[in-house]
């Protein structure tokens, strides 16, 4: 089909063909009718459903280029096929026809990107010097359904194509086989055995754990009071009102002068001049503690001047990040009453935000004390004596990062190997916490671990038992790791091609101009 001298080149290329057939026999996915190998080569790399010319039409349009090679849409070319496939896929998934420019643009965009990937891969394959043997291309064409009659190739049907159509068909088939061969080689890149063996070693032994946790939110009031006693200046309580001026310091000074000489009341000044969210409340700031002014009044001397005001007195004009402020003292500063529930809650919030290390250290001490009690009296007795609720989870392998998790369905170690974060909120932050996994699998069985900070909890683990991995789990790790490695290769290749400076994207402009002018 490629020429009358075919028998000669078949004889000359027999060693090449033999090697080609051997490799393709090992990896049969490249032949017609097989399942898609890679996401980026779905259908069109390995299947030619519309490759025969004469089934469609349309003007040739250029939507971009890769490495100077135009990405064209024309009758029956790769881009054309991808559009047809994407539209059919849309119909199957939605049960309806495309009805809007946005939907149509998404379908065409998908087809365009697949064509860019195909163009790039053909370029890579060509640069590597690979071309499929002519006889193999001929045989591929001879197997197309369009040329079958009574279960055999019909030369008469094939001759119904024009010479140019036959040449186009041959070139398209060759390109499809080149891209498919490149994709298969890419997919079958060897995964280092050492990596697979390492992951399999993580699967066993699996451990079952008991656990207790200490919540940072339960930090006792006695510790809060101790911190307040150590830092009384931070927690002085004062009630103020303010006028905020954003325009200029000069205007703020004029307003303060009018208030001081009685020309204008503070309330009238707030209503007429204040430029912040408290203006509608007469400038009333309510009760505030000194630490809340650390950001509002950066200058320590100015901050102290405000907290030294007598009731009813006005401050000088104070420079703040948003402009200038005049404060009025409505209630003089006083020490905080930690028995006031609302003020106590504010202090705890401050400690969680600014002194969290102090809280964590305190609970580490509690966890270490509990671990000592476990070593002396046993886990259950220690938990009961401290009033702690214990939980159990596992068996769990060393599944750092919940490796390979796809919605909890295809974890490389099996779905049962996932941390029970849905049932135990304390473990929500554990999956990628190195200390958690180190303590979990280095602590001897029936021994308490050291304290582990996870989110807003400090936990103590107690490895209770170990179980070997089932052989089926070890076998599936090999399969799934190789499969996921190929997925990563696909995604990386796609990203590199579509973000490459060699890629020139003119899709939006061409689509709006030629396909959907009204969009």
Keywords:
alpha+beta, Chitinase A, domain 3, 4-stranded antiparallel β-sheet, 519 residues, flat, disordered N terminus, 46% helix
Q: What would you say this structure looks like, in words?
A:
With about 525 residues, the chain is α+β, with helices and mostly antiparallel strands. The chain folds into three domains: about 200 residues, no CATH class; about 130 residues, Roll (Chitinase A, domain 3), CATH 3.10.50; about 100 residues, Chitinase A, domain 3, CATH 3.10.50.40. It contains 18 helices and 13 strands. The strands form four sheets. Strands 10-5-12-11 form a four-stranded antiparallel β-sheet, sandwiched between helices. The chain has a four-stranded antiparallel β-sheet with strand order 7-6-9-8. The protein has a three-stranded antiparallel β-sheet with strand order 2-1-13. A hairpin with a 2-residue loop joins strand 8 and strand 9. The longest helix has 28 residues. It is flat and about 110 Å long. The N terminus is likely disordered.
Which stretches of 5+ consecutive residues score pLDDT under 50? 2-17, 19-58, 405-409
Number of helices: 18
- Mean pLDDT comes to 84
Number of strand elements: 13
Strand content: 15-25%
Number of domains: 3
**Structural class assignment:** alpha+beta
Question: Strand order within the widest sheet?
Answer: 10-5-12-11
Q: Which descriptor suits the 3D outline?
A: flat
Helix content: 40-55%
């Amino acid at each position: 089909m490629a020429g009358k001298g075919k028998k000669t080149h078949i004889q000359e290329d027999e060693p090449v063909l033999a090697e080609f057939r051997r490799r393709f026999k090992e990896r049969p996915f490249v032949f017609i009718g097989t399942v898609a190998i890679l996401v980026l080569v779905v259908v069109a790399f390995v299947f030619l459903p519309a490759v025969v010319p004469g089934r469609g039409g349309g003007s040739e349009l250029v939507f971009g280029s890769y490495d100077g090679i135009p990405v064209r849409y024309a009758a029956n070319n790769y881009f054309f096929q991808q559009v047809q496939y994407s539209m059919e896929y849309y119909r199957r998934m939605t049960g309806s026809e495309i009805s809007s420019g946005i939907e149509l643009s998404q379908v065409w965009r998908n087809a365009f990107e697949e064509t860019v990937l195909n163009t790039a891969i053909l370029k890579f394959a060509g640069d590597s010097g690979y071309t499929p043997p002519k006889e193999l291309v001929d045989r591929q064409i001879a197997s197309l359904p369009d040329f079958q009659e009574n279960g055999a190739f019909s030369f008469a049907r094939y001759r119904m194509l024009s010479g140019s159509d036959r040449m186009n068909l041959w070139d398209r088939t060759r390109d499809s086989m080149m891209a498919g061969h490149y994709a298969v080689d890419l997919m079958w890149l060897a995964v280092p055995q050492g990596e697979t063996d390492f992951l399999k070693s993580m699967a066993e032994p699996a451990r079952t754990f008991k656990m207790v946790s200490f919540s940072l939110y339960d930090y006792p009031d006695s510790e809060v009071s101790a911190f307040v006693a150590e830092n009384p200046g931070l927690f002085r309580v004062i009630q103020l009102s303010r006028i905020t001026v954003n325009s200029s310091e000069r205007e703020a000074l004029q307003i303060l002068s009018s208030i001081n000489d009685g020309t204008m009341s503070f309330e009238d000044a707030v209503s007429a001049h204040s430029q912040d969210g408290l203006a509608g409340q007469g400038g009333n700031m309510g009760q505030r503690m000194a630490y809340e002014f650390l950001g509002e009044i950066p200058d320590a001397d100015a901050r102290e001047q405000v907290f030294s005001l007598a009731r009813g007195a006005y401050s000088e004009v104070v420079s703040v990040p948003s402009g200038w402020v005049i404060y009025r003292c409505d209630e003089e500063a006083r020490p905080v009453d930690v028995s006031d529930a609302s003020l106590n809650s504010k202090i705890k919030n401050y400690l969680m935000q600014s002194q969290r290390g102090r809280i964590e250290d305190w609970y580490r001490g509690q966890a270490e004390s509990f671990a000592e009690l476990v070593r002396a009296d046993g886990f259950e007795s220690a938990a009961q004596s401290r009033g702690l609720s214990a939980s159990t989870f596992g068996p769990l392998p060393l599944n750092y990062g919940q490796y390979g998790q796809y919605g909890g369905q295809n974890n490389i170690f099996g779905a049962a190997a996932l941390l029970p974060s849905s049932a135990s909120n304390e473990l929500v932050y554990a999956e990628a916490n190195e200390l958690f996994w180190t303590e979990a699998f280095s602590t001897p069985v029936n021994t308490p671990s050291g304290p582990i900070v996870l989110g807003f909890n400090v936990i103590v683990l107690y490895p209770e038992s170990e179980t070997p991995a089932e052989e089926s789990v070890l076998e599936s790790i090999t399969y799934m790791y190789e499969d996921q490695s190929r997925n990563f290769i696909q995604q990386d290749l796609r990203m590199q091609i579509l973000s490459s400076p060699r890629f020139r994207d003119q899709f939006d402009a061409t689509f709006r101009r030629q396909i959907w002018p009204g969009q």
